[in-house]
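note to self: the first set is below, dont mix up w the second
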Amino acid sequence: MPYDLRRREAVTPSAETALAWTVDGQRRVEVAVAGLSNASASGPSALPGWSRGHVLTHLARNADALVNLLSWARTGVPAPMYPGGPDQRAFDIEAGAARPIEELSHDLRQADARFEAAASNMPADAWEARVVSASGREIPAADVVWLRTREVWLHLVDLSVGFTVDDIREDVAWELVLDVAGWMSTRVERAFELVVPGRESVRMGPGPSTGRVQATANALAGWLTGRDDAPPVVESGTPPQLPPWL
């Protein structure tokens, strides 16, 4: 029987595991950025309307926003991700996008370091504290590190610097499949089975399964997150229309 994502309350790995994945991803982004010129930084990313400078600025500000949530969990004093709300988030990204590559790179490295320090110094009991994500969802602080993991690995792909979904760590790609397919389970019109060789198959969507797709975890993650428009190998049925994710 396939694993039913609707029965799984959380797919987030432990904070310790997610932090190791995050650090790995942050280092890879920093290495990729080191090879960019000012012209490359202002060039288009894979995200519509965003340059690579937009993506890098977003990654830096996202790190600081998630540090706010870790501070909230540690101290008990509410600290929203973006105190000024979505407008502040958009303003900060736009304001920083056109900076020289040296400044973008320095900003990103400093923000990465602040996040790593905040996560590494969290008291064990603070991971259980509840905080509120930018979408308004209440989550345990342990989930915050996974949110950063998602950001760095997917936006590394979005930078369009030669890194594809196939280059994402397989363990991270598998967690992305579980996470995103779980979110989509209440947003697709019918159930479908996702099959990764060597892994337990998973079912997303309502009702009995209407078909199967099989692919690597990386290919499925690319499809589910919209980084690859082509569906994986369809074994049977017609895949449901996927809603846009993030």
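second set (the one i keep forgetting abt)
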Amino acid sequence: MIGKIKTLCLNIAKLKVKIATNYTKYYDYLRLYFEQIILSQDFEHDFDIGINAFWQEEGWGNYLKQLKESGNFADLGANTLIDEKKIVTIRKIGRKKKIIFDLQAEERRLYLKAILRWKLFKDTLRYSIFGKSQEDWFFQVTFPIIYYPVFWYLEYFLHTHMLHASAVEFAGKAVVICGMEGIGKTSLVLSLLQEENTSFLSDNLIFFDSQRIHPCYELIRIHKHEDSSLWKGKFKKVNEFRSLKGFYKPAFRLKEGGVQPRIFIFPQFSEKFFAKSISGPDIVHKAAIISQLPAELGNYGEFRKLYNFLDLNFNPQKSEYKALSDLLNSARCYVIGMPKADGLVINSQRLKDFIKHEQ
């Protein structure tokens, strides 16, 4: 399981992300999860973010102690050290295990060393002898290990931010559906994809700057209760994962590059169907708050604040709100009320008709 270091390179939001790990099962998980964006060439030196995810049995607890004794770091408390270019912290992920995160910024490049503790007896018993699945744990740690450095790099160097939303190109218009978990964003996207000349952009996350939105690669998570006719032929299940979630990858080539959004939709359940045009600061604030609520994304706020210690003059929230305000002002924004009792088929058809006739 733990042995030879293996690497793979990814194209996430046009960033070259090089990942090295000494844990074979995690490497295999990453290859399956990111299969569609793995770069064929190993960019030994030409990359934007370099990530080492190492499982370590010995000396894990001495890592911060040794850095403190070097005399080069200031102790911020809460298991966090900092010098001019590096911040090192211990964080607990998913109420399960502590991980050491060692982030360093140099010019226009980020380096992250994530050190995970390997307990030989317990982990061998749990994962090898009893055969317990690790995919759900891998899913949790991949956000702080891979996605969070990408989020921060895009914010810090490129003034590009993350939004919790789904997006498609439908009826010649780039449509963004921004809402809380459980409102039916995935179901609506799958329904829109049944129409001809519709392109899938993203299911759960998008990146944005002041003018365009950009897809964020993730496997789509389709719940068991979803109407299977909506996704069959469109997405393929990743059967290798023994996970509580159902992971699916698109059966078509993902659309690359950014697009200018035409319509922003904020769905909510209501007594009757309606479409209400909205604008102004409130809708900007609403979109920003929605992006902080999902569990895997809400934790980014904690890491973002820690990483901002590397440049105390950096104000990502100011940049985020300015870009989001410009983006929303250039599009048309609507609150869409959908009667839950009417079901997906009726509500999605109403939404399709609205989008097609929206001027």
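remember for set 2: The two ends are 57 Å apart (CA to CA).
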